[in-house]
Amino acid sequence: MEDIIRKIENELNTLSLKEREELLKKLRDGIDDIDKQVVPLISKRTLHSVLIGRVKRSMNLPTYNPQREKEIADRIGSYVEEPLTKEALLRIYERILDESRAIQREEHEKGNVFNISAKKMKVGFSKLLSKKEYFIVGAFFLILLAIMYYTFFTPNYYKGKSPIEVEVKRGEPFSEVVDDIYSKGIIPSKTNFKIAAFIYGAEKKIKAARYFIPNGLSYLNLLDYFISGKGNLLKAINIIPGSSLQWVASQVQHDAFVDSSSILSLCRDKDFLDTLGVESPSLLGYIIPQQYYIYERSTPEEAVEILFHGFKKFMNDSLRQRAKQIGYSIPKVLTIASIVQGETNKKSEMAVIAGVYYNRLKKGMKLQADPTIEFAKKGKWTRLDNNDLKINSPYNTYKNYGLPPGPIDNPAKAAIMAALYPAKTDYLYFVASGKGGHLFTSNYKEHLKNAAKYYKRLDSLKNR
After folding, report:
1. Which of 78, 268, 302, 397 has the maximum number of C-beta atoms within 10 A of its C-beta?
2. CA 380 to CA 443: how far, in whole Å?
3. Which run of H or E residues covers position 336?
């Protein structure tokens, strides 16, 4: 094209007629080629106008939008190149816009009169870019891929002994996890790790666990380490009211893989209990029934400390002060609470039952609490008989006065609160009603009648 322009500008008058005819043919062929490119583009533009018309119709918008056409005119005018003037270019586009409005109007009046397929909207890639442009785009993406591979797939090495321990806590924000592993030198860049996590969709998939991170993990390998939970997971341990130490230890071993015999040993180790500030011979009564979170394969010491922390958190200064007000030590309060827990699971009765035992202690009466006999039997809880009441044990409250040596189970918070705030009544006796509750009385003869009714009911159920 440059040769043709140069000949026309500098040599036109010196060219022969035949040479001029050849130039004319080349220029006309060029126009034909341009028309082949322009007409499909105008057609595609018109197809967009048809679709715009349909969207407008669905929104009850008018076909003619003068503000939009003014914006188009301003934008088109900025594209002008010689030999076209801005006015000439706008006149050409005015015709295009007229036809677009006419087509939109026809669509609006008659419905979808044009058959539009996705194929008509496609533009071949070969027509979009030149070979040089393809090369530039391809080179750009290759460079980008190389950078991404180097950044996210190559190993990151940290200094110091491997592996490094990392704890991801329950509900911990992802940003705090990133700050932690960055501060420990596991990753060289917080930004790159966050980008990798975004690409991987990992921000909310990381599992709470205790991880031991080996050296040389890439960003993506480290994310996979967190997502797949390749560490010791944080497990929920549910402790039920009235549980024994053996049951608690067994539950922790089952859920968190911590040796139960080691847990039991610690719960009865005087030196270890002294470090916790526990005055009792064991932790029985000090493990609040609730949900705890313990990392798998924790040390027995760590597991027991987590369990005891529930009690420390619950037994605050005001509750400790309340124990002093009623004249009982924490171990004795827990002992009464454990007996109350052994008697009932009904929260509405706990304070009343606690009041009965406090009344009996004040009068110097034996507690005669069946749960203490069951504890002394050290077996499966069954209906007591007269022989059971003769068991030689400091926990036999039918033979011994006062409280037993310590708690007989792990009482719930409600039972502990009942022991701290007993109901003020004159009741000295109670027996199961056979309907899920208890009958209370301050009269021994009336109590014997209630007891006779209860045992008669039990016998009738047994003989069915």
Report:
1. 397
2. 32
3. helix 330-343
- Are the C-beta atoms of residues 368 and 401 closer than 8 Å to each other? no
pLDDT band at 136 (very low <50, low <70, confident <90, very high): confident
The pLDDT > 90 percentage for the chain reads 53
State residue 332 phi and psi, 5-degree precision.
-70, -40
Q: Is the peptide bond before 163 cis (omega within 30 degrees of 0)?
A: yes
CA distance 339 to 367: 10
How far is 353 from 432, CA to CA, in rounded Å?
11
Tokens of 104: 């939109």
Strands (E), 320-388: none
pLDDT cut 70: percent of the chain above it:
91
Parallel, antiparallel or unpaired: strands 429-432 and 291-295? unpaired
Residue type, 243: S
Q: Where are the domains of the chain?
A: 2-114, 130-230, 234-314, 327-427
Q: Cα(230)–Cα(33) distance, rounded to whole angstroms? A: 64
Q: Is 234-314 the same fold as 2-114?
A: no
Beta-bridged to residue 135, according to DSSP, are none
Dihedral-angle region of residue 436 (phi above 0 means left; psi in -120 to 50 means alpha; beta otherwise): left
* 334 in Cβ contact with 319 (< 8 Å): no
CATH 3.40.50.1970 corresponds to the domain 130-230: no
CA–CA separation, 455 and 128 (whole Å):
95
Token digits for 162? 């491997």
d(CA 193, CA 179): 11
Say which residue the tokens 């040089």 belong to: 132
Domain 234-314: which CATH class?
Answer: alpha beta
The pLDDT assigned to 108 comes to 67
SS3 258: coil
Give Cα separations from 398 to 50, 370, 406, 444 (angstroms): 96, 8, 16, 16
DSSP state letter for 234: E
* CA–CA distance, 273 with 305 (Å, rounded to integer): 10
Q: Lowest-confidence range among 62-76, 147-161, 281-295, 331-345? A: 62-76
CA distances from 347 to 350, 359, 415 (A): 5, 19, 7
Nearest CA to 412 out of 327, 463, 331, 345 is that of 345
Are the C-beta atoms of 300 and 258 separated by less than 8 Å? yes
Domain 2-114 has CATH 1.10.3900.10: no
